[in-house]
Amino acid sequence: MVELKTDASIDAMYETGQVVAQALTAVRKAADVGVSLLELDEAAREVLDAAGATSPFLGYRPTFAPTPFPAVICASVNDAIVHGIPTGYRLRDGDLVSIDCGAQRGGWAGDSAISFVVGRARPADAHLIETAERALAAGIEAAVVGNRMGDIAHAIGTVCRGAGYGIMEDYGGHGIGRRMHEDPPVPNEGRPGRGMPLRHGMVLAIEPMLIAGGGDAYRTDPDGWTLRTTDGSRAAHTEHTVAITEAGPRVLTARD
User: Fold this and answer.
1) Whole-Å CA distances, 243 to 51, 96, 126, 142, 165
2) Taking every pair of C-alpha atoms in the chain, what is the biggest distance, in angstroms?
3) Which tens digit of pLDDT belongs to each residue from 140-153?
4) How far is it, in rounded angstroms, from Cα 112 to Cα 20?
5) In the chain, which ranges are E strands?
6) What CA–CA distances, in Å, run from 79 to 98, 120, 126?
7) Which of 51, 64, 221, 245 is most open to solvent, judged by the fewest CB atoms within 10 Å of its CB?
8) What cofactor is this protein dependent on (predicted)?
9) 246 burial type by CB count under 10 A (0-12 exposed, 13-18 middle, 19+ buried)
10) For residue 256, what pLDDT band results from cuts at 50, 70 and 90?
């Protein structure tokens, strides 16, 4: 069941989304050669605590997970696509890092992700991240009243496939509101003009997940959470929480 949010609810979700944006900004600022993933998690925790927000990631345990998630961010490095658990691993020059973060405040959730390179970026990594950002922007642009879910999926998939990248199979975006994961699912590839009509008040987490090697398959680490490329190629993940309104898409997790 898809809950259509009121304008007042969307405003409240924007406030939560800005906490997520601030947390990701703090993590990006803290990320440097020699900094551990646990230190990045702590940077996000400090922002959530200061805002009086909680983490929908911490303690989250879906059916596939052997244990509850132990952190407030997912920190996925190099060939890790999503759901990486922060550890004592210290960042190295040239590491490609994807950070996913959420917040819960005032009864509403927000969810967003960024990818970046620590230190000197290889041209191939820079292009992968830039393409992920373009795919996200294309998906957001298609998130308008009168379009269908397939238009968002097609916009994302066209950018990704056009650059020769793989799209993580079985995973995509999702509805978001009172909980982090709600209906409807938001695929990263599809046919235009198909699927659920987009209506004012729908709020979606749109999140392209790109694989540099061009394949779509992934494997799961022994921790039961971290998902990696099967060919060892690098991956990038971007995400925003977006409200569909009569005035156009409103990015609730927009960063300065």
Assistant:
1) 22, 29, 28, 12, 27
2) 48
3) 999 999 999 999 99
4) 7
5) 73-77, 80-82, 96-105, 108-117, 166-167, 173-175, 182-186, 203-206, 209-211, 218-220, 227-229, 235-237, 240-243, 250-251
6) 10, 17, 15
7) 64
8) Co(2+); Zn(2+); Mn(2+); Fe(2+)
9) exposed
10) confident
Q: How far apart are CA 7 and CA 190, in angstroms?
A: 29
Confidence (pTM): 0.97
Q: How many percent of the chain have pLDDT more than 70?
A: 100
Residues 6+ apart with CB under 8 A from 22: 47, 51
Burial class from Cβ neighbours inside 10 Å (0-12, 13-18, 19+) for residue 88 reads exposed
Binding-site sequence positions for a divalent metal cation = 100, 111, 174, 207, 239
With beta carbons less than 8 A apart as the criterion, state whether 180 and 53 touch.
Answer: no
* Binding-site residue positions: 83, 100, 111, 174, 181, 207, 239
Which residue do the tokens 């090697």 mark? 213
Residue 117 near residue 97, CB atoms below 8 Å: yes
Tell me the binding residues for substrate: 83, 181
Q: Which two tokens stand for residue 85?
A: 């658990």
10 Å CB burial of residue 140 (0-12, 13-18, 19+) is buried
pLDDT in tens, 150-201: 999 999 999 999 999 999 999 999 999 999 999 999 999 999 999 999 999 9
Q: Quote the radius of gyration of the chain (alpha carbons, Å).
A: 17
